[in-house]
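Obj.: predict assembly geometry.
Materials: sequence records (below).
Method: joint structure prediction, all chains together.
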Amino acid sequence: MEAQTVPLAGFDDKPALPPWLLAPTAALMLLTLYLVFDWVSTEATMGIVQRIFYFHVPAAMVSFLACFVGGVASICYLVTRDQKYDDLSLAANESIVVFESVNIVMGSLWARPVWGIWWTWDARLTSSFVLLFLYAAYLMVRRASPVESRAAVCAVICILGMLDVPLIYMSNRLFRTQHPAPVLGGGQNSGLAPDMLKTFLVACVSMVLVWWCVLRVRRRVARLDRAVEDLTRRAHELVDAGSIRL
Amino acid sequence: MMKNLSWLFYAYGAGWLLIFGYLFWIGRRERHLRHKVAELHELLNEKWTKTRK
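Observations (raw structure tokens):
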């Protein structure tokens, strides 16, 4: 019974978001919102709008983490040709588009009241914009490529995309333009007040957990996509072999 | 100090909208794909059984 043994990768009933992940993510995100909106002290120069920082920066950091995960998964795929790494790479790379968009949109809504402009082509903003478009292009190439060569082509683009991350990180260290100097790891005059640092660290952990949830859900969908492709291919093979008539 | 409060809410609102919007879209896609996999599997089994008969 060949047709009944068609592999159903990803077609299981296990939840993509198990309670051991969902519960701490929700709890920590609520704690973050409490800390950001009620607990942390207000920054002296920019006022209350500076609190955008506690989501804007973690979203960027999560994008960098996703670039690293996607890049490593792509290398693993090129070495092993195991589809599970391609699924992970796709999930990580799509999450970059989401979290980098969060970073850029929140940054823009912060820039408007503080700088008086929505956007400027300075080094940090431009390199972040390039990262967003690079991974949006990755998704378009993935859709357009033939199934057989798709994963390998995308793996190469993804590894190239990973190279933009150090450029973004160094951009406001090397070029002093509109974007502020780094507040963490930025030299002698950088740093955060203790309560701000605590809030920032909690926000970073909760953003990583949110990203992990997104990654798991997207990887499940990637497996299901592959299951549909597998089933369609098997159906054509069975029709061609004369085993079934459609 | 509080004059830019609305910008803070716009920014957090936009951030959450993007994340939840994406999760909603992914959830819909998962439901659609699960349905498609079940449909294809059922069709293959049915055709297999009919052809054998």
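Conclusions so far: Residues 51-176+192-218 of chain A form one domain.
To do: check interface contacts against the pulldown list.
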